[in-house]
Amino acid sequence: MDLRAYYQKIRETTASFQEDDVVVVSRETGDGGKAGVCTEVPKAVAAKMIVDGAAAEASSEAADAFRQAHAEARERAEQEMAAARVPLSLVSTAELKRLRGARDRD
What we know:
By secondary structure, the chain is of the alpha+beta class. The chain has helices at 3-16, 43-52, 60-84, 93-105; strands at 21-26, 38-42, 55-57.
């Protein structure tokens, strides 16, 4: 393997990307890699994966769908975290009785 050509190809592939993060689609590999899994990675990592044959750049439609699904999942997770942050106050029995007594007098 000619290392100069290998690294030159990685540099050229890196330079061809427009964005800092690239969505790639994995390819099936002999060491157990699954085909068709989308992942967003930095462009240097994407270039190495593409040159090594472990992945291919996702189409713009597939990348948009992946990013949209990821944004929706993040939004759902944030909503669930916000719902879990319900304010909770512990009140002693004496304080509860006092509050109930004040309410009954009104």
